[in-house]
């Protein structure tokens, strides 16, 4: 696949609980126009019985943006997918990869991989009521089940229900004995199984997720699959995204500089505060990695993270963050 033929799932940022809220997605969209962005997982119960605008509201600049759902009941999934499409999301994604015990108690997430027929029923129910793509994010296996046949049969069954896009975290999910954090680190990465899925299902879009932190690994994966989804590396080193439109889509080199992005984030903080009363620090937390690797980045983060400045306007905090510190002997840095 050449850069100019790249599909919508060539680059994406993973759904991450407590991280990829709409403020984080606004920030990431400033860095890349093309990369597909995903919401945090939203459970069907939260949408059917909770505050729909709070869960589904997003800024128009976020497109292309996908809604990730957590649930297992086909009728509930259909109703929530319809809500997501009406709200304007470009994709509805079903979470079949989260290993947390809280998610398991709700009978969704990675444990659904043991019930491919139920997943297929849920996918079909959603496909029948929306015109946007319905996709699935899943693992390569659960617990000690490490055979390729397990994930192959899961993908084959769900694809027959109308799912054409599978985003595969290339690790097993251990449902007992490991925390969600350990589930991202302990089970070994087995990219070869994801590559084998693409060979066996060439008509499907297969994207890989898990442990990809460098350009070289990113490039190598794109030789074997259709797309790469990046998680925590995109959050902690967001400037990486600023090169993706040129590198992976053939766009003209970006003239974007970090200071421009920070200025636009401050303007966004001011708008959000005026419109909703949103405190700037709940937005600023997502951009703490903007200057990572540059001289002065640590002090910049310290200023933006200083709880004593929460009462100051965001623009004043930005000024302080870039002010050259002149300290008297024994004085404290912010």
UniProtKB/TrEMBL annotation:
Broadest EC class assigned to this enzyme: oxidoreductase
Active-site residue numbers: 98 (proton donor)
Domain DUS-like FMN-binding per the UniProt entry, residue ranges: 13-316
Cofactor: FMN
Keyword ATP-binding: no
Site (Interacts with tRNA): residue numbering on this chain: 95, 181, 184, 298, 301
Keywords: Flavoprotein, FMN, NADP, Oxidoreductase, RNA-binding, tRNA processing, tRNA-binding
Residues that coordinate or bind FMN: 15-17, 68, 137, 169, 209-211, 231-232
Known catalytic reactions: 5,6-dihydrouridine(20a) in tRNA + NADP(+) = uridine(20a) in tRNA + NADPH + H(+); 5,6-dihydrouridine(20a) in tRNA + NAD(+) = uridine(20a) in tRNA + NADH + H(+); 5,6-dihydrouridine(20) in tRNA + NADP(+) = uridine(20) in tRNA + NADPH + H(+); 5,6-dihydrouridine(20) in tRNA + NAD(+) = uridine(20) in tRNA + NADH + H(+)
One term of GO molecular function: tRNA-dihydrouridine20 synthase activity
EC number: 1.3.1.91
NCBIfam families: PRK11815.1 (NF008774), yjbN (TIGR00742)
Similarity comment text for this entry: Belongs to the dus family. Belongs to the Dus family. DusA subfamily.
Role according to the record: Catalyzes the synthesis of 5,6-dihydrouridine (D), a modified base found in the D-loop of most tRNAs, via the reduction of the C5-C6 double bond in target uridines. Specifically modifies U20 and U20a in tRNAs.
Name by which UniProt lists this protein: tRNA-dihydrouridine(20/20a) synthase
Organism: Ramlibacter pallidus
Lineage: Bacteria, Pseudomonadati, Pseudomonadota, Betaproteobacteria, Burkholderiales
GN (gene name): dusA
